[in-house]
Amino acid sequence: MTSLDTEKPAAPVNAAERALLRRIYEVLLLSRAVEERFWVLSRQGVASFVLTPRGHDVAQIASAAAIRRGHDSVWPYYRDMALALALGLTPFELFAGSLGRDCDPHSGSRQLTLHISSPRLRIGSVSSEIAAHLPHAVGAAYASRVLGDDRVAVAWFGDGASSEGATHEAMNLAGIHQLPVVFFCENNDIAISVPHHLQMPIASLAERGPAYGMPGVRVDGTDALAVYRATRTAVARARAGLGPSIVDAHVPRITSHSSQDDDQYRTPQEKAAAEARDPLPKLRAELLEFGLLAPGEEAQLQQAARARALEEADRALASPEPAPARARRWLYAGDPPHPELARLEAEGIGVGPFDDLDLPS
Amino acid sequence: MSVSQDRPAAEGITLLQAVTEALQEEMARDPRVVLLGQDIGRKGGVFKTTVGLQEQFGPLRVLDTPIAEDVIAGAAVGAAMMGLRPVAEFQFADYIFPALDQIVSQAATVRWRSVGGWGVPAVFRAPCGAGVRGGVYHSQSVEAFFCHTPGLKVVVPATPRDAKGLLKAAIRDDDPVVFFEHKKSYRRYREIAPADEVIPLGVARLDREGRDLSIVTYGVGVHHAREAADLLASDGISVEILDLRTLIPLDHEAIARTVQKTNKVLILHEANKTMGFGAEIAAFIGEELFMDLDGPIVRVAADDCHLPYNGPEEDAIIPSPAKVADAVRRLAAF
Ligand SMILES: Cc1ncc(C[n+]2csc(CCOP(=O)(O)OP(=O)(O)O)c2C)c(N)n1
After folding, report:
1. Using the 8-state DSSP alphabet, how is residue B302 labeled?
2. Cα distance from A75 to chain B (closest Cα, Å)?
3. Residue B154, phi then psi, degrees to nearest 5
4. ipTM of this predicted structure
5. Any alpha helices (H) in chain A, and if so which ranges?
C-alpha cells in the first residue's frame, strides 16, 4: 500500500486555486469551531449525540468546491458537517438539529444530528443507514440522463459503507450505463472499530473502479488541492457524459466514531498517528508558504469563527422544541412543508463560501 | 400501441393487458414516467406486462437492469426525488426482499424525515401469489410486510379494470406505492377498462351485494369469494363481497357499511394467517364494530407454512372456493 501521509501537498497553479485554498481554510476553521461547540453542548447534556468530521473536514470542503451548488445533487452521510457548511448551510441549522429544535429545516430534529437535507440545494435527506444513499445517487444520475440535463450526482460515504451490497449494486449499475455520478469515499481506515483490512481485501477502493467500468483514483484526503482537483476531474468527466468515477480520499478519523463511542479499541499509537495527519496544520503551513495567510491572522479568524459558532448555538438553544402533536405530519403528501423549509425556499440557494471565486464550473 | 388490439375492444382486456395499457398510457401522457426492472425491455417482462414498451419509448425509459433488486428500488427512490415517476418491476414478489430496505427504510421515510421537503413518487410492482405450482420462491403473498410500514401505500387489484385504473392512480400518486398483481389473475378473464379511468386509492369496491354475510377480501380472494358465493347461492345463502382494492389507505367506512348490513363477516386472503392483513381488519371490526356483529369474525387464509411446488401439498395450504364455502356455511349457521 502506498503511503499518502508524507507526500507534499499539491501546490496551487493559478490565482483561483490560491483563493480557493484560503477559502477552504476559512470554512475549516468554522467547522472546527462548530464542532468544538457541539462537544461542549454534549458535555453539558443539552445535545445528546455528536458526530464529528475532524480529519475528514478538508476533504469534505474541498470536494464540495468541485460541484455546482444547487445544480448538482448531493448525497451525503452523517459525518458530513464540514461539507454542509461548505455548501452554505449555517451553523444555526446544524445546532438546531442537534438540539432537537423545531426550526431544524433538515428533519425538524426527527433525525439524529447532522442528518441534513435540502431540496433547494438538491441535498438528499441523510439516512443513518450506511450506503443506502448510493443507489439514490445513481437514480439521480439516471434522472439527469432521462431529463437530458447536465446535473451530476455526488455521493459521500465511508470506507465501511463500501462493504454493503448496495454499494456494489450502485456502482455496477452506474458503470453499465456510464451515469453521471461520482462516488466519493472518505476513507478513514476504520468503521467504528473494524479496520480497513477487515472491510476490504484491497489497498484502496479506487482499485474497484476499473472492475465497475469507471476510473478510480486514490488521493490524500488531507491535501485540499489534490482532493479538489481529483473531484473536479471526476465531476467534469460526469458532466461531459464520460461516466462515473470513484474518488478514494484517504483521511484520518481524529476523534472517536461519535460521542457514544469510547475509542478504547485504538492504541495510543494509532490515535497519535491519526492526530499526526490532521489536515489543519498542513493547510496552515501551505497557506503561510504561499503567502495566503499573514502570521497572526489565524488567531483572528479563529476567534471570529468561535464567536459565530457560539452566537448561532445560543440562538438555536433559545428556539422552541416541536409540538408533540406534530409527530404524524408529513407521512404522506398533502401536508404543507415545514414553515422553515418554505421560508428557505423563498430565499433561494443563498450565498455559498465559494460562489464568488473564479472556479471553472 | 395496444397489446389488446388483436382482439375486438368489446371483449375487453385481461389484467395483464390492463397493466401494460396503464403503463403505456401513462408513459405516453407523462415523459417523466420510466420503467426499471429485469428483462422488461427486449423480452417485455417474464409475464409480458411490458411488451412493446421499450420499442415505443426506448431503452432509457424502459431500462433493463442487472439482477440487483436493492439498486432497482434505490435508483427509483433517487430518480423520483429528482423529478421522475419511476415504476420499478420485481420479477416475483418473492424477490422484493432484497429491495425491502430501500422500500421500507428509505422510500417510506423520506417525506416524513425531511418534514415534507422531499417526496418519493415511485411505484414498486410485483407479481405475487400461489396456486400456480411455483414453489416457495414464486408463490408468496408479501403485502403485510409493507402494510406495517407508515409512509407506503399498498394496492392489490383483483380485476382488469381495477388493475388499470389503480395502476394509473399509483403512478400519479405523490407517495411511494407498492403494487401487487396476482399471477393467477393475469389471464383469468377479460373486462372493459376505459382508457382515461383513474381509480382513486383508498376506496373499496362492493363486488357483489348480499344479505346474509360479508366476505371482505382483496386480490385473488375476490375470485375465490365469487366462486364460493355461486356455490352457496344454491344453498340459499346470500353473500356480499367487498373488494378492498387498496390495503393502505384502508377504506374503513366501506368495511363498516358491509358489516353493519349483514352483521357477519368472513375475512379472506391468500397470505399466511398469522400477522396477515386479515388480522388488522379483524382488529378494526372488533374495536369499532363489535356491537354490529351477530357471529364471530372468521378468517380464511393460508396455513402458516411455506408453499410447496407439488399440487396436493400446495392445495392443502392455500384457500380455495370450496374452503371459503365451507367456512361461510359454518358462519351462516352460527
Ligand atoms: C446498514 C447499517 N448497518 C450498521 C450501521 C451502524 N453503523 C453506524 S456507522 C458505522 C460504521 C461506518 O463506517 P464508515 O462507513 O467507514 O464511516 P465512518 O463512520 O468511519 O466515517 C456502522 C457500522 C448503520 N448505520 N447502517
Report:
1. E
2. 10
3. -130, 125
4. 0.96
5. 15-43, 57-64, 81-86, 91-98, 133-147, 165-177, 208-211, 224-239, 268-276, 279-289, 297-317, 339-347
> How many angstroms separate the CA atoms of B70 and B193, rounded?
33
Q: Which residues contact A121 (CB under 8 A, 6 or more apart)?
A: A69, A70, A74, A87, A88, A89, A349
Task: Mention every residue, 6+ apart, whose C-beta is less than 8 A from residue B80.
Answer: A139, B86, B107, B119, B120, B121, B122, B176
Cell, residue A194: 473494524
Length of chain B: 334
What are phi and psi for residue A105, nearest 5 degrees? -75, -5
What is the average per-residue pLDDT within A327-349?
Answer: 95
Cα angle B27, B172, B196 (rounded to 5 degrees) comes to: 70
- Sheet containing strand B246-248, edge to edge, reads B62-64, B33-37, B85-89, B123-128, B177-182, B153-155, B246-248
Block residue for cell numbers 394496492: B155
Q: How many contiguous H segments (helices) and E segments (strands) does chain A have? A: 12, 7
- The residues lining ligand 1, judged by C-beta closer than 6 Å to any ligand atom, are A 79, 128-130, 158-161, 186, 188, 190-192, 253, 257
How would residue A7 be classed by pLDDT, with cut points 50, 70 and 90?
confident
Q: Which helix (H) or strand (E) holds B55?
A: helix B53-61
* Mutation probe of ligand 1 site: the residue of A78, A113, A192 with most atoms within 8 A of C-beta: A192
Helix (H) or strand (E) holding B168: helix B160-172
B148 is catalytic: no
Q: What is the pLDDT of residue A3?
A: 58
A112 touches chain B (CB under 8 A): no
Please state the atom number of ligand 1 nearest to the C-alpha of residue A132: 1
What's the confidence (pLDDT) of residue B11?
A: 86
What is the distance between the alpha carbons of residues A135 and B73, in angstroms, rounded to a whole number?
A: 8
> What's the CA angle centered on B263, arms B262 and B266, to 5 degrees?
85
All three cell numbers of B150, joined, read: 407508515
H or E stretch covering B74: helix B69-81
Cα separation, A159 vs A204, whole angstroms: 9
Ligand 1 centroid – CA B245 distance (Å): 40
pLDDT tens digits, one per residue of A220-266:
999 999 999 999 999 999 999 999 999 999 999 999 999 999 999 99
Rounded to the nearest 5°, which phi and psi values hold at B15? -65, -35
Burial of A328 (0-12, 13-18, 19+ CB in 10 A): exposed
Q: Does residue A230 contact residue A182 with C-beta atoms inside 8 Å?
A: no
